[in-house]
Amino acid sequence: MSEQVAEVIRVRQLEVVDSEGNTRAEMHVDDKEAVALQMLGVDGKVLSALSVLPDGSTTLNLNSQNRKASVLVTSAPEGLLGLVLLDEEQRQRAAVLYTREHGPAVRVHDEAGKVVWSAVNPQW
Fold first, then answer.
1. CB atoms within 10 A of CB 47
2. Could you give the count of Cα atoms lying within 13 Å of 48 in the half-sphere of its Cβ?
3. Please, are residues 59 and 46 in contact by the beta-carbon 8 Å criterion?
4. Of 2, 36, 79, 100, whose Cβ has the fewest other Cβ atoms within 10 Å?
5. pLDDT string in tens for the chain (124-residue length)
6. Range of the domain at 31
């Protein structure tokens, strides 16, 4: 017996579940028309997410299992590219940024958010 394969499946949200029925991944379009693909740990918390916003901005967010650290990679239509490291409180601790207008910038922040080291183009 051959299996029938649908050419297209149209939904606003798709969930992938594990053997116990727990959601482990989901893809959806939200009410602001942003598209997101999220992968969840066994505890149901988001460990990684890829999003595309209506303006064309994209983000990739990677979280450690215990939420002690996160990495955010982003790009925006106006040419901003960024790699941001976040601590367990989701505070920015380091960033590498680039724009066509200003070039590259690297910043390191303390727990209070104060820049403690940077290497930037003076135009920033």
1. 19
2. 6
3. no
4. 2
5. 578 888 999 998 999 999 999 999 999 999 999 999 999 999 999 999 999 999 999 999 999 888 789 999 999 998 899 999 999 999 999 999 999 888 999 999 999 999 999 999 776 6
6. 13-120
Residue 38 forms part of a structural domain: yes
pTM (predicted TM-score):
0.83
Count of the separate structural domains present in the chain: 1
Residue 66 lies in a domain: yes
CATH number at residue 34: 3.90.930.1
With a CB cutoff of 8 Å and minimum separation 6, the contacts of 71 are 61, 62, 83, 84, 85, 86
